[in-house]
């Protein structure tokens, strides 16, 4: 039944392409060298039987899944090291290039328990460790001679860091810290790889010295014996259990009972503790949270790649699947010809591109601010923190909705585990919570916005991401004019954000005058504040996407530039239509303006339609990483679905033993 030919409908779609797909791919992956390395790595793994699961992993038990994941994770490290050594580059940090994004998640479908080692443990050493500490631990960590994780979240506390209960008390006599979990709720809970994989950990704990509390500080702690892997004295450790997704990650719990570590194990690049117990504050407490900001940048980038993956699956399937008649005198049409289907598919393509551009923008900002921090300049750190918080919150929330929309766009077949939407949904919906719960992050952004609003009304200079507030205050218009262009949409969305911020600020002040404390007033205004932060982020995304696409188009061929601009316009139109309620409140947009906007969105969908398959092809995601019969490059969906069905263990025998044990006696009995 397998077919080696390309589905004729899918091929017809590719024949319509109006742009150079290779040009798009080179931009998407970052140039010729990265594309070659990507293709070489993918081919390297595609031809390796060690990474072909038979049976598929969704038929394994929880214990079998973890053991298989560990086998594959260690095999990947060995093979990636060999891959780079054969090419004259033995840098072990290259392992990081496949742990995140699509390659690592495509090979190890339920998450890599070693991922947190490179995603957070190594960055924590770099971000918090002194040069001497890095010299001691970093070489071993990069070679995986020690395996680490990052333990911050506790059973009773997550995003609210000041509420963490784990303590590290300095003993001046022995020059040691004593780590303690004073309550069950203080047990570390959720760190990836913690349960049975890692033998070291960066632990965030409340530092006590000379009877005083000095806040959350990072400590490196050995958890297990390096030879036997048995937990060390005073360590209680294990796995938290099965989850909605990412069940290969080996998330764990960790408790301390009078665990002693030497003074040098407090990471002291920022804050320091002297031998006599004197605490030396860091230049800014925010420096302690640098690892989290780095991870949030990575999350936005990975969200773009996850969306590209599921969009590829859904678009290809929608071209193969035929359903219903548009013209009763003609055959059933491809599902993608229905405008409603295009509206389910194409905005996710646009989001993936805008999110990728936003992550590039955020990455540049992160590197600039990090360089400024090294020179002692902390001025832009709050701005970076604020935009990273809201970008992580908005992109992950929208991506989770998009994955579900794309799954349902594939009908019943999208519900199949083998369609591989559930894996991606598991990754993106988890990202809505880890590294900062989304609502809490929006409120952190809002706190920054309230602060800069105070600065703006005093005429003080503002950072680039909030510069629009100055113009809003100077304009003094109660309802701002609607302009029917993408720059006009950007301006309007900024007006929405600024107007919501003005109202939230006024309501906080009114409540304070009514007798509430500042904290109580903020809580009572928190719905407005979260909505303000979201509006600020959406305005940033549309602006960033538009400006970066325009800059990019100066270097692209005219056909590809046209496609990119259309995708950027679709994103802007969709965001504006989703914000019509707010636009009506704060701008002069009319019913006819909204109707015109709707028409522009529909025209953008129709303009993208002929190139839809070629755009997702240009994401260059091979079948081994898509892992879905619905999205296979050759489009032979039904043959591949049938092949997947044969892999079920229940199909290994014509009659299951349950018939003789239960069904037959049941049917023979008299009820």
TrEMBL record:
<protein>
    <recommendedName>
        <fullName>Acyl-coenzyme A oxidase</fullName>
    </recommendedName>
</protein>
<dbReference type="InterPro" id="IPR055060">
    <property type="entry name" value="ACOX_C_alpha1"/>
</dbReference>
<feature type="active site" description="Proton acceptor">
    <location>
        <position position="435"/>
    </location>
</feature>
<dbReference type="InterPro" id="IPR006091">
    <property type="entry name" value="Acyl-CoA_Oxase/DH_mid-dom"/>
</dbReference>
<feature type="domain" description="Acyl-CoA oxidase C-terminal">
    <location>
        <begin position="488"/>
        <end position="668"/>
    </location>
</feature>
<feature type="domain" description="Acyl-CoA oxidase/dehydrogenase middle">
    <location>
        <begin position="150"/>
        <end position="259"/>
    </location>
</feature>
<dbReference type="GO" id="GO:0005777">
    <property type="term" value="C:peroxisome"/>
</dbReference>
<dbReference type="GO" id="GO:0005504">
    <property type="term" value="F:fatty acid binding"/>
</dbReference>
<keyword id="KW-0576">Peroxisome</keyword>
<feature type="domain" description="Acyl-CoA oxidase C-alpha1">
    <location>
        <begin position="289"/>
        <end position="450"/>
    </location>
</feature>
<dbReference type="InterPro" id="IPR036250">
    <property type="entry name" value="AcylCo_DH-like_C"/>
</dbReference>
<dbReference type="InterPro" id="IPR037069">
    <property type="entry name" value="AcylCoA_DH/ox_N_sf"/>
</dbReference>
<keyword id="KW-0285">Flavoprotein</keyword>
<keyword id="KW-0560">Oxidoreductase</keyword>
<dbReference type="Pfam" id="PF22924">
    <property type="entry name" value="ACOX_C_alpha1"/>
</dbReference>
<dbReference type="Pfam" id="PF01756">
    <property type="entry name" value="ACOX"/>
</dbReference>
<dbReference type="InterPro" id="IPR046373">
    <property type="entry name" value="Acyl-CoA_Oxase/DH_mid-dom_sf"/>
</dbReference>
<dbReference type="GO" id="GO:0003997">
    <property type="term" value="F:acyl-CoA oxidase activity"/>
</dbReference>
<feature type="domain" description="Acyl-coenzyme A oxidase N-terminal">
    <location>
        <begin position="20"/>
        <end position="146"/>
    </location>
</feature>
<dbReference type="InterPro" id="IPR002655">
    <property type="entry name" value="Acyl-CoA_oxidase_C"/>
</dbReference>
<comment type="pathway">
    <text>Lipid metabolism; peroxisomal fatty acid beta-oxidation.</text>
</comment>
<keyword id="KW-0443">Lipid metabolism</keyword>
<dbReference type="InterPro" id="IPR012258">
    <property type="entry name" value="Acyl-CoA_oxidase"/>
</dbReference>
<comment type="similarity">
    <text>Belongs to the acyl-CoA oxidase family.</text>
</comment>
<keyword id="KW-0274">FAD</keyword>
<feature type="binding site">
    <location>
        <position position="192"/>
    </location>
    <ligand>
        <name>FAD</name>
    </ligand>
</feature>
<dbReference type="InterPro" id="IPR009100">
    <property type="entry name" value="AcylCoA_DH/oxidase_NM_dom_sf"/>
</dbReference>
<dbReference type="Pfam" id="PF02770">
    <property type="entry name" value="Acyl-CoA_dh_M"/>
</dbReference>
<keyword id="KW-0276">Fatty acid metabolism</keyword>
<dbReference type="GO" id="GO:0033540">
    <property type="term" value="P:fatty acid beta-oxidation using acyl-CoA oxidase"/>
</dbReference>
<dbReference type="Pfam" id="PF14749">
    <property type="entry name" value="Acyl-CoA_ox_N"/>
</dbReference>
<feature type="binding site">
    <location>
        <position position="153"/>
    </location>
    <ligand>
        <name>FAD</name>
    </ligand>
</feature>
<dbReference type="GO" id="GO:0071949">
    <property type="term" value="F:FAD binding"/>
</dbReference>
<dbReference type="InterPro" id="IPR029320">
    <property type="entry name" value="Acyl-CoA_ox_N"/>
</dbReference>
<dbReference type="GO" id="GO:0055088">
    <property type="term" value="P:lipid homeostasis"/>
</dbReference>
